[in-house]
Amino acid sequence: MNAGEWAGRALGERRVRYDERDAILYALAVGARADDLDLVFEERLRVLPTFALTLAQWAPDALGSLGAFDTSTAVHGAQRLDVLRALPPTGELHLQARVAAVWDKGSAAVFDVEVESDHFVATWSLFAPGCGGFGGERGPSAPKDHLVGADEIPVQTYATQAATYRMLGDRHHMHVDPDAARAAGQPRPFLHGLCTLAAITLELARHDDVHPADLSSLSGRFAAPVFPGERLAVHLTADGSRSFQATVDDRTVISGGRVTFGC
């Protein structure tokens, strides 16, 4: 099969169970504080919507295991999450996954893997070198960042964050094993992109004085890795669009970000 023939292919269905312990571990892994009682205390628990992404990680992994692309070179290029309703503190979700689109970037292809449930719709965009050139549509261009005069919000990661986040299901070795990280072209283990995006969302909610569980949509492109312990600067537009970009020193790590809370 060429890459374009994967478009529209079903990746299966799953019922995924979780409880409050899983949701609390997730909140702690992405930066919740001990005094965020409604994120870390089961008696008051509200589940972070981005927790859903850990429950659906099987879908992009399934596409790789079917041989659509070389899993040693493909990277997670972008993520989108649209929240339909709040996740309960404990429950079972019925998830359906498919390849929503495949874009031809010339030397590479981008596979959009979509997961649907009653609570959310999530889309992984997977950049696969060597899979392009099949004559398909190029697809949407990367959004431009217009952040002149944007607010700057610090986000501090911590040294054990990648090791902690791995316990939620994404156990790719490059996030903990130095040898695997070097094989992936990085000098040391690096943070999961979804962990970085969720940590940013927490701080943006604090900045806007809204509850992070009221997230309604989130998207962003992974431009460069973040290493555990690094401090991010998140540049958030003040024009009401809630677009953002995240940098570490002079390195852009998240581009084309956008977040909305509430309706």
Summarize the structure.
The protein folds into 2 domains: 3-129, Roll (Thiol Ester Dehydrase, Chain A); 151-261, Hotdog Thioesterase (Thiol Ester Dehydrase, Chain A).
Structural description of this entry:
The chain is an alpha+beta fold. It is globular and about 50 Å long. It has seven helices and ten strands. The protein has a ten-stranded antiparallel beta sheet. Helices cover 21% and strands 33% of the residues. Strand 8 and strand 9 (243-248) form a beta hairpin. The protein has two domains: 3-129, Thiol Ester Dehydrase, Chain A; 151-261, Roll (Thiol Ester Dehydrase, Chain A), CATH 3.10.129.
Secondary-structure blueprint:
Elements: E1 10-18, H1 20-29, H2 37-40, H3 52-55, H4 58-65, E2 75-83, E3 91-104, E4 108-116, E5 120-129, E6 151-156, H5 161-166, H6 178-183, H7 193-208, E7 215-222, E8 231-236, E9 243-248, E10 251-261
Antiparallel strand pairs: 1-3, 2-5, 2-7, 3-4, 4-5, 6-8, 7-10, 8-9, 9-10
